Amino acid sequence: MRRRFPPGSRVQLTWFGHSAFQAVSPGGKVLLVDPWLENPKAPPKAREINRVDLILISHGHSDHLGNAVEIARRTGATVLAIYEVCQYLASAGVARTQALNKGGSFTLSGIRITMVDARHSSAIEDRGAMISGGEAAGFVMEFENGTTLYHAGDTSLFMDMKLIGQMERPDVVLLPIGGLYTMGPREAAKACELLNPKRIIGMHYGTFPALSGTPAELRKCLPPRMKGKLLELEVGVPVEV
Ligand code: NI
Ligand code: MN
Fold first, then answer.
1. In a domain, 238, yes or no
2. How many domains does the chain have?
3. Mean pLDDT over all residues of the chain?
């Protein structure tokens, strides 16, 4: 049988600041999640990215929709989001959208994306008007080699994270820790107990002074057996997970 990717290949994950991540799959597919690539912490050339296969949008807020429209139009990427966000994106000129809703999955070139719950709001602001963005969501990405990432989007802590842990068994969890608009380090530490991942990555912090949670605080709040699982990413520096 022909291999679809070189043996031993892993998922290459790059943080662009805030909740924006790039994941390059073992088979070479490029995914962007919540691509706000001009956030204050983003590397200067982040938004010039020119090869993208799939863009995932967790909800309609501008710090998550970010540069999705221009990147999708420029690269021809398919944008995957909840139905209402897809309707908006289509009206903004994105040619390829794939709507799904919570509990549903979509597979593209061997990568399985599942939309899961998040507790947050999701209106889209467009030229001063508020458009319905449906509900906020999170994503579980299962890559060709079985590696599974959970990007929680913007959310509070909720008990069903335990179900996400049991059903999806994420290897890596990306959790908001900034506080104010999402959970902070204390809640994220509890989320880690519910999810039981191998690696823990904080996001949605440090973008503005108000998002004041830090990985150091998260480490403090984690139970001793989990402290070593925390991975502190530098923006623009890829890591293999
Ligand atoms: Ni939000
Ligand atoms: Mn946000």
1. no
2. 1
3. 96
Q: What is the pLDDT of residue 9?
A: 85
User: Which whole number is the average pLDDT over 205-224?
Assistant: 98
Domain assignment present for 4: no
Q: 170 CA to middle of ligand 1, Å?
A: 22
pLDDT for the residue numbered 8: 75
Is 239 contained in some domain?
Answer: no
Strand order in the sheet with 172-176: 105-108, 111-117, 137-142, 148-151, 172-176, 199-203
**Ligand located closest to 63 CA:** 2
pLDDT for residue 4: 60
Distance (Å) from CA 182 to ligand 1 centroid: 8
DSSP 3-state percent helix, strand, coil across the chain (nearest 5): 20, 25, 50
pTM assigned to the model: 0.97
**149 part of a folded domain:** yes
CATH number reported for the structural domain that contains residue 191 in this entry: 3.60.15.10
Q: Which two tokens stand for residue 55?
A: 């863009």
Range of the domain at 162: 12-232
- Tell me what the mean pLDDT of segment 96-114 comes to: 96
